[in-house]
Design brief:
Length: 410
């Protein structure tokens, strides 16, 4: 286990260097140079661990250990390797690294599975560069169509396929994956909250994942001179947006049952200190464990935004993502719990307030997730940290679970 722990620390440390904001957390945008550096590291490690490496038409990376059965569905293990702006070194990356180390144990023990094992590194889960998020996994299951994928552009107007070509990715490779080629998907992720640490539980077996939506709101007014425009003749898009935004948290609080709402991104145009803004665009992220809560808050949010439309102010809302709450596969949850007990690693049940690729792949295959504690419950920030010993626990659990699901004799 110690050897695994040392390799985990090295992988996390090396991958954290591939950031466009050194000393200010990990910023690794999909199809950026930092993506390419991380991609090459992951592919090299997959080859070192005896895996056959390929990429799909989205740039997702797959490292396959062939099984005894030909053309049999694979057990996949992995997570995403992109990041939020100035994020941490563990979100997503920890799950890819743990997957790699599961493959290392298969290799070290000379195991040939009956069903193939695939380690996966998924792109654009965060949605930092292209709108919506969960892009790699949605592409795999086809809920993001090829046409919609190709139409996505970043804030500079660069399309997904232009960005892929820039780092040498082959956009003509197959995109959507036949669900019959997947037997199960396992993902380790950092908890990104305080519960496991408060409970002193080294492992959380995920029962379910919240439903979520991401809205993009545009408020349009009229630009003007900050000095010469009287206050009663202004159509100020930022003041209107501010009035809307300050009322949104109460919609979630009034809905209760753990419903949360976040305005994470706000862009002001033309963004001049002496210019009355004529346009603002901001995001609204709404989540809850119950779909009814999410739908209620979406409806009230849209009604509130609409109420600010008048002759010189126009408001509009676009929905970039909507995912229902997901319960993870019951038999895999039991397997993960039983495996943790047999390894004498304490665990507790937990629900996820964060979205994950697991919630997308659970539409087409059996999915299980485990969490490890996040120090001080922090995530999506440079301070994000998890103990490599906990990650090594995760390797042991997923290794045993993978042997079970691939029907490997050891
Ligand atoms: O937003 C989320 O929950 C995830 O980090 N993408
Ligand atoms: Mn994240
Ligand atoms: Mn994540």
């Amino acid at each position: 286990m110690k050897e695994t722990q040392v390799r985990i620390e090295r992988h996390i440390n090396e991958l954290s260097k591939f950031t466009s904001t050194p000393h200010k957390g990990v910023t690794r945008l999909t199809y950026s140079n930092e993506d390419l550096q991380a991609r090459n590291y992951i592919k090299e490690t997959m080859k070192e661990y005896g895996l056959n490496v390929r990429e799909d038409g989205f740039g997702n990376i797959f490292g396959k250990l062939e099984g005894i059965l030909n053309d049999a569905p694979s057990v996949l293990i992995g997570s995403h390797f992109d990041s939020v702006p100035n994020g941490g070194a563990y979100d997503g990356t920890a799950g890819v690294v743990v997957g790699l180390e599961v493959a290392a144990l298969f290799s070290k023990n000379n195991l040939t599975p009956k069903y193939p094992l695939e380690i996966v590194a998924l792109i654009e889960e965060e949605g930092t560069r292209f709108k919506g998020g969960l892009m790699g996994s949605r592409g795999i299951i086809g809920s993001l169509s090829e046409e919609d994928f190709k139409s996505l552009k970043d804030k500079d107007g660069i399309s997904t396929e232009e960005a892929m070509s820039k780092i040498g990715l082959d956009t003509s490779l197959p995109k959507k994956r036949d669900p019959k080629t997947m037997k199960a998907f396992l993902e380790l992720h950092i908890e990104q909250g305080p519960i496991l640490e408060e409970k002193s539980s080294p492992i959380g077996v995920v029962e379910g994942i919240v439903g979520l939506t991401q809205l993009e709101v545009t408020v349009e007014g009229r630009a003007g001179h900050a000095g010469t425009t009287p206050m009663d003749r202004r159509s100020d898009a930022l003041v209107t947006a501010a009035k809307i935004i300050t009322q949104l948290p109460d919609l979630a609080i009034d809905e209760g049952e753990g419903t949360v709402i976040t305005i994470g991104r706000l862009n002001v145009f033309p963004n001049g200190a002496n210019v009355i803004p004529d346009k603002t665009v901001f995001t609204v992220d709404i989540r809850s464990g119950k779909e009814e809560n999410v739908c209620n808050v979406i409806r009230k949010t849209k009604e509130l935004i609409q109420s600010y439309s008048e002759d010189t102010i126009q408001t509009s809302v676009e929905q970039h993502l909507y995912i229902q709450p997901k319960a993870l596969n019951k038999s895999i949850r039991s397997l993960l719990k039983q495996t943790s007990s047999e390894l004498e690693i304490p665990y507790c049940s937990i629900n996820s307030g964060a979205g994950h690729d697991a919630m997308i792949l659970s539409d087409v295959t059996d999915v299980g997730m485990i969490f490890v504690p996040s120090k001080d419950g922090l995530s999506h920030c440079p301070e994000e940290w998890s103990d490599a010993h906990h990650l090594a626990n995760g390797v042991q659990i997923l290794y045993e679970a993978a042997k079970n699901l691939t029907e490997t004799k050891s």
